[in-house]
Design goal:
The chain has 353 residues and is an alpha/beta fold. The protein has 12 helices and 12 strands. It has a domain of 240 residues: Rossmann fold (3-Layer(aba) Sandwich). The strands form 3 sheets. An 8-stranded mixed beta sheet has the order 1-2-4-3-5-6-11-12, with helices on both faces.
């Protein structure tokens, strides 16, 4: 069933929902308290398996492959809805599984989806855990804690800023280290965790990365030319366009005003180079470092303060009656739950109980 070999204790099933045939991994008893795991970009549900197996007794791990990823039915992502396609898919999955409420855990892109999920349906949450989440304002193209766009067309975000060799090599199933900037294995081992760490399941996790659906309207998505630096702006299809600030809409405001307000746990690695105030995937930072020519300077296009933006939004959530805790796991990168799973679980289990 699953393209990626599963660990003992994990079951793989296709679930027919009202929207999309969804590939789901399960752990624990069928009647256990549901814990819904949402994976990040260039990954699949396989990234959660070890944590699913570490859930306390009486909990049921549920990890879908998101639309555009893994073994879930191949349907396009309408990026103009922001995270809306994924949120509606997750609600349809909960309906199909007859789940009224769940603890929800989102990593990276999955964290950004979780912000929008709370904004749309906070009554479905027992708790929310954000692991190195993308900024609630979107990835790229904004310049301050309020998420102010650098340009009106959100230039510097969306499918056009992805290194074009990376999706080509994913589509080719490349497992080499031949391209030092774009080989999927190199990107994974350089940025998903803090080098020199490598997970025991490196090959399986690489296979998981390679399951992303690639194409002009898939990953990374389409783009439009822009007169503004760096001369590309978001298109209308695919996951990277869905994550841009152009299509965030009212989701930040609706998150802050959500009722009821689930408890939020924010866990992040201290050495993350993907979601950071100086991200190596952000045009403002790459321009400042001289990697992208023509950078217009800090006043017009500074690095996006991604961590600062998340904290700013969560502080407003707290001021509006919610609660959150921020925990930093030392000596880890973008995936602390893979790098230090026992330390991650010690923090996460407190929320579950």
């Amino acid at each position: 069933m699953s393209t990626v070999p599963t660990l003992p204790g994990i079951t793989s099933t296709m679930i027919d929902t009202a929207r999309i045939k969804t590939h789901v991994l399960f752990s624990g008893p069928d009647n256990g308290v549901p814990v819904l795991f949402i994976h990040g970009n260039a990954a699949s549900n396989a990234y959660w398996e070890e944590i699913m197996l570490k859930l306390p007794e009486g909990f049921r791990g549920i990890a879908p492959d998101l639309r555009g990823y893994g073994d879930t039915e191949d349907k396009l992502i309408d990026a103009t809805r922001g995270a809306g396609e994924w949120v509606d898919d997750l609600l349809a999955l909960m309906d199909a599984l007859k789940i009224k409420k769940a603890h929800v855990v989102g990593h990276s892109m999955g964290g950004a989806i979780t912000f929008s999920f709370i904004a749309a349906a906070s009554e479905k949450f027992l708790s929310a855990t954000l692991v190195n989440p993308s900024s609630p304002y979107g990835f790229g193209g904004t310049k301050d804690l309020e998420g102010t766009p650098c340009y009106d067309d959100f230039a510097g975000s969306g499918g056009g800023v992805v290194n074009p060799d990376f999706p080509k090599l994913i589509a080719a199933g490349d497992r080499s280290t031949d391209n030092p900037q774009a080989s999927p294995r190199v990107v994974m081992n350089s940025f998903y965790w803090k080098p020199p760490f490598k997970p025991e399941r490196e090959e399986d996790l690489l296979t998981s990365l390679l399951t992303e659906k690639v194409g002009e309207q898939k990953y990374p998505g389409d783009m439009v030319a822009s007169p503004n630096w760096p001369n590309v702006a978001p298109g209308k299809f695919g996951p990277i366009n869905a994550l841009t600030p152009k299509y965030v809409g009212d989701s930040v405001k609706n998150f802050i005003n959500a009722d009821p307000k689930p408890q939020v746990l924010w866990i992040r690695g201290d050495s993350d180079m993907i979601v950071s105030d100086t991200s190596f995937f952000d045009m403002g930072n790459l321009g400042r470092l001289g990697y992208v020519p023509g950078w217009p300077g800090d006043e017009l296009y500074p690095p996006q303060p991604m961590v600062g933006q998340t904290r700013h939004v969560l502080e407003q959530y707290k001021a509006n009656g919610g609660s959150y805790e921020e925990v930093v796991i030392a000596d880890t990168g973008h995936s602390p739950y893979i790098e230090k799973p026992d330390e991650f679980m010690a923090i996460f289990t407190k929320v579950l109980k």
